[in-house]
Amino acid sequence: MSNRREFIGTGLTALAGLTLLPAVNSFANPGNAYKSFAKAKPRLRFALASDIHYGQQGTPYPENTANMIRWLNADHAKNHLDMVIVNGDLVHNRPDLLPEIKAKYLDKLDVPYHTIPGNHDFADTAIWKNTFSYEDKYTVEHGDIAFILANTADNKGTYVCPDNAFIEASLDKFATRKIVFVVLHIPPVKWLKGEGFLDCPDTVELLHSYPNVKAAFHGHDHLLDGVRYTGNKFPHFFDSHIGGDWGTDYKGYRIVEIDDNYQIFTYQVNASQNPVLNSNKL
Length: 282
Hints:
The chain has about 280 residues and is α/β, with parallel strands linked by helices. The chain has helices spanning about 60-80, 100-105, 125-130, 165-175, 200-210, and strands at about 45-50, 85, 115, 135-140, 145-150, 180-185, 215-220, 225-230, 235-240, 250-260, 265-270, 275-280. The relative contact order is 0.20. Mean pLDDT is about 85; it is low at about 1-30.
């Protein structure tokens, strides 16, 4: 396997300009347990997982996918999840496997789930709608909290900027909502030279132009599990990976909680029984 992050250089010096939000609790509780950071039941609590790469030869993809379902169902049983978002690369260059991963694994989640394509899903609107009964760009509403999800690749795996007309129309529609989140598999900005992300300044401008848009969530880079910023500290959160043959040593997912005062808490879960990582408060 080639090194997907050679451009970073040595050590962390290339990341020196990036900052993290203040940590709420950087580590898990004794016994690697974790719990909701909200004092009362959150107004909304959801998980984001990405990069399953189901079907990638040479990887234990059935085990990885089954683990994800088990981890998320266990999280729901302990702390309650309102939904799960699977943010791209469900399969590995095999769109014919999308019905299989849906029926055999995703439909076994104990909570509602939503998906969006990644570049390895080789999917367009027709493929996604045929599998999941909704298109590759759509919105989700939970009271005063809304989500905008959009595809960032075509059915050949080529990176493409999301449909900005759709995003803008959705942002206008949700202009009076308290909180809006945008979910894109591939980030719309390259922070580092040579980085395998998109360059979509119009998308970034949209994210910055609506004060109720609080964060964007991305997958794609399996080595990233924290936060990066654009503009005046607009956060873009990553969630590591579930499968594939490269990335962080652990497999994990991200939790987001919104309390009754619309405060947003987010932390990364190392689902392989290691501590909760890089917990943040927005």
